Amino acid sequence: MKAAPFEYFVADSIDEVTTGLADSGEEATIIAGGQTLVPLMAMRLARPALLIDVNGIGDLQGIDLLAGGVRIKACTRQSDALKSTIIGERLPLLAKALPYVGHAQTRNRGTVGGSIALGDPAAEIPLVATALDARITLVKKGNSRELSIHGFYQGPMMTSREPDECITEILFPQWQGEGRRGTGFQEVSLRHGDFAIVAAAAQISVGEDGVCARASVALGGVSGTPFRISAAEDALRGTMIDDPALRAVANAVDQAVDPQSDLHASASYRRRVAKVLVERVIREAAREAANHAAGDAP
Amino acid sequence: MKPRKITLEVNGRVRSATAEPRLTLLDFLRYALNLTGTHMGCEHGVCGACTVMFDGLAVRSCLIYAVQADGHDVTTVEGLCNGDGTPGPIQEAFQDAHGLQCGYCTPGMLISAQALLQSTPDPSDDEIREALGGNLCRCTGYAQIIDAVRLAAVSFQGAGG
Ligand code: FES
Ligand code: FES
What's the fold here for domain A181-291? Predict the structure, then answer.
């Protein structure tokens, strides 16, 4: 399986990328890590006429701690994100999810922005971005805009990015205020490194009295896009995250998911796994919060 | 679509050849440079048989186009041999621990193992499993491959890294 012929252009700056996209429109595709795009091209599910290579653009790489959160430039390698102490300390949920993203050999090449841009419904990085209310910066010639991750995904591998836009960075906002924080991430897949059949992510904050002040719960793999389960979050807030609260969460998950059957798992299996994983990630987050000093990152 | 000239360093030697953009680094190594040690399994990023080191990091060579390797540094399984062409330490370890049967996956396994030992000279079994998790083997059942990497780690350390 060989890719169809294409033209290849190495961009040296974001300007060159947006100019290239503006000039060639839908014929052009950005190649970052290529860990998803190259297989799609080999199977001829993608046939771009022009590949714009962004791997050499320094402005698209790096992880920075800003006042509002952690900014990850789009072409940052997943393996660099996994090694980053900023992410380890400030975005523990992402740090927990990254080891599940493919294998070491693909993380050495694959990028954070590439995973966000493709929007595979079972991918871990879009799931964490959804759980943490990430903001995505898109740049096109003479213009740029920032979008919330909520609404960015319109369906499996479909986003609201325009064909002439390039994702330049993703901001993961930090939760402000006091409270003890905890995170949980779990997934079920056929083999480690495969896409998740179901993946769950949670981040919570509890007060000194042990009452849950804030909760974010998200699922991947059970629908066309990763999504938040706001009813589960409501069911946690104001509780001690005890068994009755977790039963309410399980009900909320049951109501919220509408999984499909496919080759890898039936709808009913996915539904059951979703409930179990959500409970596990919340318990994991609560345990962690209980052990955390108040005001600790994240 | 016009072929381009690509110059890169492979196993410590500067090599040059032309390739059209759609040629993968894997095909470039095998057909343009005649380095057939790197194997092609699935050609879409699943099996790991094509693993090479790219600027010192293990990657799948079927998921990089040769044009993207221009100016970079690549190590293939041929680069793991001793200077006289005899098996290098990691290859010896695979032989001694019987870490292969048909050998199809072996070049990828060797490179993944080498990359692991360069960054983690004394890996735990879990770290070995994690590092080789992206390499499929249809023959061995993996146990002896893990033994081989453990053995290689010992011999690397004996040799002072
Ligand atoms: S041939 Fe590259 S991963 Fe299978
Ligand atoms: S030895 Fe045959 S595939 Fe691994």
Answer: Enolase-like; domain 1 (3.30.390)
Tell me the three-class secondary structure of B42-85, residue by residue: CCCCCCCCCEEEECCEEEEHHHCEHHHHCCCEEECHHHHCCCCC
Topology of A58-173 in CATH? Answer: 3.30.465
Q: Phi, psi (5° rounding) for residue B101? A: -120, -80
Residues B69 and B39 in one domain: yes
CATH of the structural domain A7-53, one choice from 2.40.160.210, 1.10.287.470, 2.40.128.50, 3.30.43.10? 3.30.43.10
Distance (Å) from the alpha carbon of B59 to chain A's nearest alpha carbon = 4
Return the H-helix or E-strand segment holding B159: none
| Structure confidence at residue B156 (pLDDT) | 80
* CA-to-CA separations, A6 to A10, A27, A50, B6, in angstroms, rounded: 13, 10, 5, 17
- Class of residue B139 by CB neighbours under 10 A (exposed 0-12, middle 13-18, buried 19+): middle
Establish whether this prediction's ipTM goes over 0.90.
yes
Alpha carbon distance A8, A154 (integer Å): 29
Locus of tokens 């919570």: A204
CA B29 to centroid of ligand 1, rounded, Å: 14
CB contact under 8 A, A108 and B57: yes
Q: Are A70 and A86 in contact (CB under 8 A)?
A: yes
Residue A71, amino acid = R
| Residues of chain B found within 8 Å of residue A105, distances taken between Cβ atoms | 48, 51, 58-60, 112, 134-135
Q: Can you give the pTM of this predicted structure?
A: 0.95
Cα separation, A134 vs A289, whole angstroms: 22
Which CATH number is B76's domain given?
3.10.20.30
Q: Same domain, yes or no, for B36 and B57? A: yes
Q: Does a cis peptide bond (omega within 30 degrees of 0) precede residue B121?
A: no
Q: Indicate whether B15 and B70 sit together in one domain.
A: yes
Q: What is the pLDDT of residues A209-244, one digit of tens each?
A: 999 999 999 999 999 999 999 999 999 999 999 999
Pocket of ligand 1 (CB under 6 A): B 40-43, 45-50, 60, 62
| Strand bridging mode A50-53 / A7-10 | parallel
Task: Give the domain range for residue B43.
Answer: 4-80
Q: Taking CB atoms and an 8 Å limit, are A104 and B112 in contact across chains?
A: yes
State whether B103 and B133 are in the same domain: yes
